[in-house]
What does this fold into?
Amino acid sequence: MSTHTNHLQKLQDWMELRNYSEATISAYRCALKQFLEWREAEGFSAPFGQEEARRYLLSRYRSGKKWQTVNGDYSAMRKFYEHVLGQEWDVEHLPRPRKERSLPGILSTQEVERLISYGRTYKHQVFMVLLYGTGLRLSEALNLRIVDIDGQRQQLRIVKGKGAKGRYVSIPECLLEVLRNYYRAYRPQDYLFNGKSTRNWKAACPRSAGW
It folds into this structure.
């Protein structure tokens, strides 16, 4: 096993034991691989030191990489140094990059309505209404199950959202009514939109659609 592969595998093993998602592990492996290749090209040799980490992050900044990219590099390298190499990370000389703050664009009501109307089917339109009305991430909406909808409390239960953390999201009555109409039209089972399972809706949610 090559030295690079060995380092990458050790980082992956640690992250798997900490129950990181596959997507996060893949992103961190990719970031670390780029650092290891840069380090080799620059002529650095073992043992690892933090000066090359500092130089690498500066080179990423100066090459025009966006904040999100450099921040991902920083996270991967810090975990590698701390949990694979067993080195204390010098936060004073290797500070985390400050987040770039910019105001998001705001759509008018008419623009939102037009966007939703572009949905090819009623199902697509309801899906976009749900995203807009609750602020769910795409993966969270796709994995929303019928049993996660609490019409009485007007809440959605999000299981394993970002960072594998669950939470509750408020949902207005008008949106609940849209989802009830969607259910009557499509009769989904278990998963609200992608039909991954065959569990019976009524068993999970009484009152026609249960909410």
